[in-house]
Amino acid sequence: MVSWRGRNGPQEELRAARVAPNGAVLGRVTIYQGGFPNWPSKYPELERAGGKAYVAWTDPLLKRVRLVAVSMGD
Questions:
Q1: What is the pTM of this model?
Q2: Distance in angstroms (rounded) separating the CA atoms of residues 69 and 31
């Protein structure tokens, strides 16, 4: 599982994808759409537990950590 920030027109997106050992992308998903003003770190945190991946990042406007669970599709 990998995650990254990308653009979709004027919107920024936080995306994740499941990747096979040979590099083939097995599925991808947009997990957040909107702005990332004053992004406090360069990389979202990504951890796997059971059949899910959890992506966390800080939201400086709401002053909190955001967490999203993504199904790994195993």
A1: 0.72
A2: 9
**Burial (CB count <10 Å: 0-12, 13-18, 19+), residue 6:** exposed
Nearest of 46, 44, 12, 17 to residue 29 by alpha carbon:
17
**42-74 b/e (C-beta count within 10 Å ≥ 16 → b):** eebeeeeeeeebebebbbeeeeeeeebebebee
CA pair distance 20, 67, nearest whole angstrom: 24
Q: Which residues pair with 45 in a beta bridge?
A: 56
12-57 pLDDT tens trace: 888 889 899 999 998 888 888 877 665 555 567 889 898 888 988 8
